[in-house]
Amino acid sequence: MENREKGQAFERIAEQYLRAHGCHVLQRNATYRCGELDLVVTDASHLVFVEVRFRKHKGWGGALESVTWHKQRKLIRAAQLWLLQNPRYTDSTCRFDLVTISAAEEAPECVWYKDAFRPS
Predict the structure, then answer these.
(1) What is the mean pLDDT of residues 109-114?
(2) Could you tell me the domains of the chain?
């Protein structure tokens, strides 16, 4: 399986996980020149931009730590562009979440980090 296919498979796992926890998915893979938003969802009263990360080996570093300031900057810019294209959500309270997926014996394990970082 190619990396892009693997990424899409993990994004589907994260999407199912978020749906099971009450989120409504607005868009998948919103792509811009500056970066990509894996998932855009609503969670109660928030508009949430979700980054999905998978790590097969802990030796490669944790998924949470892999969202560097550079990646955060790309996500913030992509979110701004998404909001420009979707003015209906401009006044929404927004946040950036992270869903990490780790390999497990029986099924992938998801961990949801709400408000993983804040734009500065």
Answers:
(1) 91
(2) 3-117 (3.40.1350.10)
